[in-house]
Specification:
heterodimer, A: alpha+beta, OB fold (Dihydrolipoamide Acetyltransferase, E2P), 6-stranded antiparallel sheet, 3-stranded antiparallel sheet, 3 helices, 14% helix, 35% strand, B: alpha/beta, Aspartate Aminotransferase, domain 2, Aspartate Aminotransferase, domain 1, 7-stranded mixed sheet, 4-stranded antiparallel sheet, 15% strand, globular
Chain lengths: 127, 444
C-alpha cells in the first residue's frame, strides 16, 4: 500500500499536497481508497470557483457498483480541476500524481495541522 | 415454478421447523388495535363456474371501444394493433414475467428492452433512451425533475397547451414540496404565444416544456420555443406523440434536451387508462442524469455479445438521495408491445399510419366545419386531432352520439374548457366518418 510520506491525509481517505507557492494545494484520493473502490469509471467535481469549507463535498467518484463523496480537507476555493479525469481510470493507476482531482487555494494554512501524517494514516488503514 | 397454496399441514410443519407455536407469535410488533379480531365477513365461496358467470355479467355491463366507432383521443388513441403483435406478446415468457432481479439471466428480456431503447432513439432523434417509465405524464414529471437537478433552478415554464392530466401530475410531483413551481405561459389560438414566452424567460427557468402536437391537437412552433429555452440556459423538454413522428420532425433534430411521450399508440390497447408507456430519452451529455433502467450491450468473458443493466450508479439503490429519481422499474410489457409494433410496421408502415391519420382527420374536420352550428375552434395546423365548437354542450353531443354507436370525442368540459376534441386514427373509414358527420348534423 502506497502512502507517500510528503503528503497529509484525511480520515475520508483524501490526500492533500501543498504546492511550492505555499498558497495552493492538490487534493485527491489515496491508493487505499482507489483499491477499495475498484475500477473507477467517472469523477465529477464542483466547478472552478466553488468555495469550500472543510468537509464540504466537492465531488463524487464513481466505481462500477458504488458512488463515493469527495470531502474537502480544508477551507478553500477550487482553482483548477484535473482534465485528465476524463479518463477516470487514471485515479486507479496514479492516485497521487496524474490522478489528482482538484487544486484549491488555501484559506487558512493552520488547518493543515489537524490532518494526519503518512504514519498516522498508515496506522488508520492498518498497514 | 407453479403457485400452490399452503395447506394447514404445510403451515403446521413450517411453524414446527422454526420452533414457533403459532403465526401470531411472529408478529408481536403489530399493535392489537390493528389486528382483526374476527374473520373477514365474506360471502360464501362460489364454484369456478359460478364465479365465471358472475364476472361475465359484470363485464357485459361495460361498453368497450370495439362496440363503438371511436373518435376519442386526448392522449390515448384507437390505433390498429396487428394480430401478430398479440401472438408474440402473449408468449408466457414475456407475458407473465416481472422485472428481472437477476437481470443478466434474462437475456431475452434485456434484448427486447435494448431494441426498444434503440428504436425510441431513432424515432425521437435522441442519443439515449431508458427502458421506459410508467406513462407519458410521469415521464414528463421525471423530465422536469431531471432538468431542475441539472440546472439547479426551480421554475419550469409550460410553453403551450399540454394535457391537463400532465399538468396535474406535475403539480403533485414538482410543486408538492413547495420548493419548485410550474408556470403556464399564455396561449394564442390554442398554441404557445411566443412573445409572451420570451418575456417570461430568465435565468431562473430550469426548463421549457412543449407538447407536440399539443393537447388541442395543434402544432406548436417548437423551433422558436427551443431557441428561447437555449437562450437562457434552460433545458428544452419536448413531449412528442410517437405516431406523429411518422410525419413530423424528431425532437432531437430541433434541439430537445429531453424527449418524452406517451407510448400507448405504439401497440398498446386503450386499457381503460392504463397500463400505458412512458417514453424517455435524452441528449448524449445527460446520460449520467437520465432516470430509470438502462439496458446496455457488451461482451462476456468468452467474447460473446450479451445484455446487462448499465450505469446503475445513477440509480437510487446506489446513489440514494443524490439520484435523479427513485424509479427502479419500467413498463416491460408495454415497451415490448411498442418494439414489436415498430418492428412489424417498419419505418414505411409508421409513415403510412401517420399519413392516414393526417388525411382522415383533415377530411373529417372539413366536413364538420361545414355543418351549421359547428366550427373549428382553432385555425392553426393540426395532425390527427382538432377541437370543434358544438351547437349544444359537448356533453350532450357525446351522450346523443353514444346512442347512435359513436364515441364522439373528448369533452373538454371535463377540464372547464370548451369544445369537443375529436381524434381520427387510421382505423376510421370514410363510411364511418360520413355517418358520424350525418349524425352530428342531426344535433342542433
Amino acid at each position: 500500500m502506497n502512502i507517500p510520506a510528503d503528503l497529509l491525509y484525511t480520515k475520508d481517505h483524501e490526500w492533500i499536497k501543498v504546492l511550492d507557492d505555499g498558497t495552493t494545494a492538490l487534493v485527491g484520493i489515496t491508493d487505499f481508497a482507489q483499491s477499495e473502490l475498484g475500477d473507477i469509471v467517472f469523477v465529477e467535481t464542483k466547478p472552478v470557483g466553488t468555495e469550500l469549507s472543510e468537509h464540504d463535498v466537492f465531488g463524487t467518484v464513481e466505481a462500477v457498483k458504488t458512488v463515493a463523496d469527495l470531502f474537502a480537507p480544508v477551507d478553500g476555493a477550487i482553482v483548477e480541476v484535473n482534465e485528465a479525469l476524463d479518463a477516470a481510470e487514471v485515479v486507479n493507476s496514479s492516485p497521487y500524481e496524474d490522478g489528482w482531482m482538484v487544486k484549491v487555494s488555501l484559506k487558512d494554512a493552520s488547518q493543515l495541522d489537524a490532518l494526519m501524517s503518512a504514519a498516522e494514516y498508515s496506522e488508520m488503514v492498518g498497514e | 415454478m407453479p403457485f400452490i397454496a399452503n395447506t394447514d399441514d404445510d403451515r403446521r410443519s413450517m411453524l414446527q421447523a422454526i420452533g414457533v407455536g403459532s403465526f401470531e407469535e411472529l408478529i408481536p410488533d403489530i399493535p392489537s388495535e390493528f389486528r382483526l379480531k374476527e374473520a373477514l365477513s365474506l360471502f360464501p365461496s362460489m364454484s369456478e363456474m359460478e364465479v365465471a358467470s358472475l364476472l361475465d355479467r359484470l363485464a357485459s355491463a361495460n361498453r368497450t371501444s370495439p362496440d363503438y366507432v371511436s373518435f376519442i383521443g386526448g392522449g390515448a388513441y384507437d390505433h390498429y394493433i396487428p394480430a401478430a403483435l398479440k401472438t408474440i406478446v402473449s408468449r408466457s415468457e414475456f407475458y407473465t414475467a416481472y422485472t428481472p432481479y437477476q437481470a443478466e439471466v434474462s437475456q431475452g428480456t434485456l434484448q427486447a428492452i435494448y431494441e426498444y431503447q434503440s428504436m425510441i432513439c431513432r424515432l425521437y432523434g435522441m442519443s439515449v433512451a431508458n427502458a421506459s417509465l410508467y406513462d407519458g405524464a410521469t415521464a414528463m414529471a421525471e423530465a422536469v425533475s431531471m432538468a431542475m437537478n441539472v440546472t439547479g433552478r426551480s421554475t419550469v415554464l409550460v410553453a403551450g397547451k399540454i394535457h391537463p392530466n400532465t399538468s396535474a401530475v406535475l403539480k403533485t410531483f414538482i410543486e408538492a414540496g413547495g420548493k419548485a413551481s410550474v408556470v403556464q405561459n399564455v396561449l394564442t389560438d390554442g398554441v404557445c404565444d411566443i412573445a409572451a414566452l420570451e418575456s417570461r424567460m430568465s435565468d431562473q427557468i430550469a426548463a421549457v416544456i412543449v407538447q407536440q402536437p399539443n393537447f388541442y391537437g395543434c402544432l406548436e412552433d417548437v423551433e422558436a420555443i427551443g431557441a428561447l429555452a437555449r437562450s437562457h440556459g434552460a433545458l428544452f423538454i419536448v413531449s412528442a406523440d410517437p405516431v406523429s413522428l411518422g410525419l413530423l420532425n424528431a425532437p432531437g433534430r430541433y434541439g430537445a434536451d429531453i424527449a418524452v411521450g406517451e407510448g400507448q399508440p405504439l401497440g398498446s390497447a386503450l386499457n381503460f387508462g392504463g397500463p400505458y408507456l412512458g417514453i424517455f430519452a435524452v441528449a448524449e451529455k445527460y446520460v449520467r442524469k437520465i432516470p430509470g433502467r438502462l439496458v446496455g450491450m457488451t461482451k462476456d468473458r468468452d467474447g460473446e455479445d450479451g445484455f446487462i443493466l448499465t450505469l446503475q450508479t445513477r440509480e437510487q439503490h446506489i446513489r440514494r438521495e443524490k439520484a435523479t429519481s427513485n424509479i427502479c422499474t419500467n413498463q416491460a410489457l408495454n415497451a415490448l408491445q411498442a418494439v414489436v409494433y415498430l418492428s412489424l410496421m417498419g419505418k414505411d408502415g409508421l409513415c403510412q399510419v401517420a399519413e392516414h391519420c393526417l388525411q382522415k382527420a383533415h377530411y373529417l374536420a372539413d366536413k364538420i366545419a361545414d355543418l351549421p352550428g359547428y366550427s373549428l375552434r382553432f385555425a392553426g395546423p393540426f395532425f390527427r386531432e382538432f377541437v370543434v365548437n358544438t351547437p349544444v354542450d359537448a356533453s350532450v353531443v357525446v351522450n346523443t352520439m353514444m346512442e347512435k354507436g359513436f364515441f364522439a370525442g373528448y369533452d373538454l368540459g371535463i377540464h372547464d374548457d370548451s369544445g369537443l376534441l375529436i381524434a381520427v386514427t387510421e382505423k376510421r373509414s370514410r363510411a364511418e366518418m360520413d355517418s358520424f358527420v350525418e349524425n352530428l348534423g342531426a344535433i342542433s
